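G., the chain you wanted modeled:
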Amino acid sequence: MSTESKSQGQLVRSLGLAWVFFLVVSSVIGSGVYKKVAPMADVLQSPGLVLLAWALGGILSLFGTLSNAEVASMLADSGGDFVYYKKIYNRFFAFMYGWANFTAIRSASIASIAYVFSQSFNSLVPLPTLPESIASISIFGFLTPFDNFGVKMLTIALIIVLTAINYLGLKTGGNFSKIILYIVITTIALIIILGFTIGDGSWKNITTNATGFVPRSWTDSIFIKNLFAALLGAFWAYEGWSTIGYLGGEIKNAQRNLPLGLIFGVLFVMLVYSCVNFTYLYVMPIDELIAESKSPNSIAAVIVVKHLLGSGGALFISLLILFTTLGCTNTTILAAPRLFFAMAKEGLFFKSAADIHPKYNTPSKAFVYQAIIICLLIMSGSFDQLTDMLIFASFIFYGATTLGVFVLRKKMPDAPRPYKTWGYPVVPAIFILFCVALLVITFAAKPREATMGLVLMALGIPFYFYWNRKAAN
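Predicted structure as tokens:
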């Protein structure tokens, strides 16, 4: 055995079903549960339609989860969908998935959630800023590295600290997320209880539409456009459940525990989201929520709890948002490097990203690469734009995984399937059709962002041919 191989650790299957459940939930519950109800109310102008959008978002996410779970039960390994796509399609499609996540989808999501943490902290303890003459400097006309400098520096510090925690071991990062999740779920439950006990909420608030509400038929193009716009907000809140697949190589009995953890985790999140958003709309008339959505940096949960408990309640919910975004950021940082590790093992990424730390048994170099790209996105000041541009790309891959259920049943009809998609073929077919509709409507509504997103993905093609040729030699 060579010295190099002796110095390599290995990924350890140490996560049981309970761990998978906790990590799914903590990777999903982030800023969306506190912020999205107000802009969704502004678009739909009806409490009933807002709750419908949350329910549809949850059901469609569950349909995607049910379909993803069958593929995961067959092919579970470190790297998640990257591993699945190699089997379902080919190396090129698998690489494009990994590249899109490295350059924008996953990295920009981490940057965005961490940035919400720093913004919330800044609202409690103002952070230093640079003089306007420096803060206004831009590069290429849209990169603003010195704007909001104190918030960016805290965000970068947070990324470095959380990367270090997860660098030191899977259970170290997992325990950190679990503790935060306990706090978050407990306090969300408290918000729901207080909303129905000490608040002056009313069922009338649930049944009364906004003053600007215009009744439209379900087939009206404006209604469909508004519903999809609201669903994008709901999907942002549900984003992240698929990242647990990256840990497939570290889950005990992954063929059973991964699909079960995915399904139970998403069902639990659906329950939490339904209850807390019903509480928001029960406590506050929709017109007040809409009015608050017009204010910059407004957060619906802060408004509702302030209404219940006064300024002390606003401080309470601000601290809760800090904890929630911290936990969601940590779990996503924990999971994503396993994707880049899987790519490097196939020769489709920087070679050293395949290194496993001999003591901590983590893909240590992959953590470093991820931290670097996230910090660059934070400094650029453009990661929110990147997220908007690539949000539709995530649904390309969600749809591709679900299509894989049909492909694998044809290519590998006799392969063991510890879990089979409930409602097959109707459930996966509905989810695929929805993904197609979402892509078409998003492209029509935001052609510039969608095109720029596709161009950013296409920039990975030269890297693929370089790494693929190098791996073949």
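DSSP finds 22 helices and no strands in the chain.

Shout if anything looks off.
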